[in-house]
């Protein structure tokens, strides 16, 4: 239906039945309608998806990743490379297995449970030494080793991926590592 309407507007303009101003106005309205319906469709899809990063888990993951991949004087951190929004995308990406998604989400929960058992505090509230101990402890069990490897893998993807995907903002990871990207680049990438 939208395609037919678009064709009618273009055809009317070509045939001189509507002026430039009417053409632009109709085109803008059509664009707005399709954009809004697409956005609503995305929000509906996200709301129906069970494997999402809740605000609580996002906060935990943020502090965990800042510990595992801290910003330093000459290196970017997860904020600069846009890692947390990337995890949101990973959890809705149909090409990422549900198994990997569950490892990410369950690992956050299990680490927080370990923190509460061991120290009666969340990961965020642990001292640096306590964080080191708890990460070291969980890295020695199968779930912890797999989970840490998985979240670091996706963190490195956000560091090294093409900025066209909303990660590695301003090519900060590439610049830090003096990396030259391969070609062809992703659609929408700057040349």
Distance separating the two termini = 36 Å
Which ranges are low-confidence, i.e. pLDDT below 50, for 5 or more consecutive residues? 35-49
The main pleated sheet reads as: none
> Helical segment tally?
9
The residue fraction in helices comes out at: 55-70%
Please write out the topology.
Layout: H1 2-14, H2 20-48, H3 55-68, H4 78-81, H5 83-92, H6 98-119, H7 128-138, H8 142-160, H9 172-177
Helix pairs in contact: 1-2, 5-8, 6-7, 6-8
Describe the structure.
This protein is mostly helical. The chain has 2 domains: 2-48; 55-177, no CATH class. Helix content is 67%, strand content 0%. Helix 5 packs across helix 8. The model is unreliable at 35-49 (pLDDT under 50).
Describe the structure concisely for a colleague:
Helices cover 67% and strands 0% of the residues.
Overview features:
single chain; 191 residues; 9 helices; 67% helix
